[in-house]
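Weekly modeling sync, notes
Attendees: S.R. (lead), two postdocs, one rotation student

Agenda item 3: backlog of single-chain predictions. S.R. asked that every request posted to the team notebook include the full sequence so nobody has to chase files. The rotation student volunteered to paste the first one in as an example of the format we agreed on. Action items at the bottom.

Example entry:
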Amino acid sequence: MRIPSLRTPALACVFLLALAEPAAAVTLSGNAALTTDYLWRGTSQTQDDPAIQAGFKAAAANGLYGSVWGSNVEFAPETHASSEFDFIVGWSGNLADDWALDVNLTHYRYPGTTVDLNWSELNGTVTWKQNYWAQVGWSNDALATDRNGTYAQLGARAPLGERWRLEGAVGRYWLDDAYGDSYAHAQLGAVWAFKAPFELRVTAHATDDSAKRLFPDLAGSRVEAALQASF
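Predicted structure, as returned to the notebook:
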C-alpha cells in the first residue's frame, strides 16, 4: 500500500481536525535558523551553500499537533528545486516517568520542480529523560523513488551547565530497495545558548563510503555552523 501523496488543502483539513480543541488549549511555537549548510541525514541539501530555515507548530492539550517547516535547497539544476516545506501531523506525550513518544506523518514538498520530488514518511521517536532518543522512519516512497526506505537514529544530548550542551547522533538509512545500497552517518555538535532565545550551534558531520557513492559531492565530512532561535 502506497502512502497517499498529501496535498496542501488536505493537510490543512487534517491539521484543523487534529487541533479540534478549545483555542485556549492550543500552544503555538516556532523556530528559525541561519546555517552555513543544510545537512539532512548526513548529506547536504544545498550543495554546501547556506540556508535560511523557519518553522511553526500548533499543539493541542491532548498531544495532537501540526507543524510546517521550510528551507531553501539546491539539488540537480534540471530539477529546478529551490525550496522545501515539511508538513507534519502527529501526536506526542509521556508514556511513563522519564519516557516520551512522538509519532507523526511527515510530508516533504518541493514546489515548482520539473519532476515530482514530493514524498511522505512515517516517523516514531522514543525519548528517555529528555536527553536520549531512538528514532525510526519508514516510507514506501523513500526520497520520491516509489521504493521502500527505512531510517534509524540513536542520539543523546549532555547539558554542560546552563548555557552549554553537547549533542550527538548516529544513523543508518536502508535504501537497498531504492538504490541498491545503504549508508551510515554520525554527527557531534556543541550548542551555546548565549542569550535567550538565541543559540549558536557548531556540528561536525561524517558519512561512510556508501553515502559518498550514493550521493557524490553531497556526503562525506563537513562542519556546519548555525545561529538558531526558538520562540
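Discussion: group reviewed the output briefly. The two ends are 39 Å apart (CA to CA).
Action items: rotation student to repeat for the remaining queue; S.R. to check formatting next week.
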